[in-house]
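Course assignment 3, question 2. Fill in each field.
Student: A.L.
Task: Predict the tertiary structure for the chain below.
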Amino acid sequence: MENRVSVWGRAWFAGVAVVVFVGFVLQFYLLFTGGADANSGDAGNTIPLGVRFVRLFSFFTVQSNLFVLIAALLLAIRGTLGRVGRVVYLDALLGIIVTGAAFSFILDPDLQLRGVAAVVTALFHNVSPIAMALGWLLWGPRRQWTWKIIPLAFIWPVAWLVGTFVRGAITGWYPYLFLDVPKVGLGAALAGAGMIVVFTIILTAILLAVDRRLPRVPFGLRSRP
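Answer field:
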């Protein structure tokens, strides 16, 4: 059977979608006005707009929030997930939890923002991870993932890592310091990437284990054949 999210669950995910959408609107405002990037803190006074736009969507944080926006909209509008939607939902959860953890333990001390940029970084790095994870815990839907889906869900993060190193080798720009080969060295950068991969694998196992132990129809979820 396939679980359908209840009206309250759909309202919750609609709220998550609004939070992320507002974050993107404010970030685009900063992008087009030359304000500080909410991911790196870099201002756009000397960087061409096209370059800033490409760099914006090179951040794992931004891509994760894009997955969250799509998954939240699917659940808010349809209340259920198809095969592709299940992969998107798993990527959204994995990506946004990794984003929240990395920001709290790796990136946060080095990032000092004010004004609109501070609001955006809070929405992307704090509110979105907590809201999406809570939404999954409270509303499900449950039993959406099988071991066959996991390799599909890992295509995106692996492609992001490979693309980051390839693009960095060509342009000299890396979205995060711990992956910046010229600054930290190839060994340290690969070790940092490896830690992220291992953490994501462990997180995936935890999500699947918890998902199978939580009630199938909690907090108003109803099932349909």
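Instructor remarks: Residues 2-217 form one domain. The mean pLDDT is 84.
Grade: pending
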